[in-house]
Backbone:
């Protein structure tokens, strides 16, 4: 199961981007795509194994706020969840990664995907980024 957050974007372009992301994820054979309405709870579900992955923040208006990321990131990282940004940058989670990765900044990171494994996080990031690029054409 993959969780997402619809956010508040309702423009034609925004709806097209949401649909493209849903299609890309479902075409990959995901059994269920859910919206539970809380970024914190969504990341925590990934952390405890109730969901395989979570993605959100596909638009400037469609993004978690700092209060969403603070608790969710700490809880999920402690459980071993891998986070990636939808702008293609990796979040710096270790000192070694800090040199090449975009730092996780609560005030600056509105889009992300996360999963229990780096392989799944990479796949989800690639799917979402590709679908958004295609939707914008």
Residues:
């Amino acid at each position: 199961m993959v969780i997402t957050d619809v956010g508040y974007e309702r423009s034609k372009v925004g709806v097209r981007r949401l649909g493209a992301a849903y299609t890309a994820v479902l075409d990959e054979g995901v059994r269920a795509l859910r919206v539970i309405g809380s970024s914190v709870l969504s990341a925590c579900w990934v952390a405890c194994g109730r969901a395989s992955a979570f993605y959100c923040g596909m638009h400037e208006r469609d993004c978690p706020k700092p209060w969403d990321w603070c608790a969710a990131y700490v809880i999920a990282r402690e459980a071993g969840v891998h986070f990636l940004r939808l702008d293609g940058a990796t979040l710096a989670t270790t000192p070694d990664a800090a040199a090449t990765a975009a730092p996780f900044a609560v005030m600056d990171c509105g889009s992300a995907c996360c999963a229990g494994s780096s392989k799944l996080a990479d796949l989800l990031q690639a799917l979402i980024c590709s679908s958004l690029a295609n939707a914008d054409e």
Observations:
- Strands lie at 2-4, 33-35, 53-56, 82-84, 91-92, 102-103, 112-115.
- The first strand starts at residue 2 and ends at 4.
- The chain has one domain: 2-135.
- The helical segments are 12-27, 39-48, 66-78, 118-135.
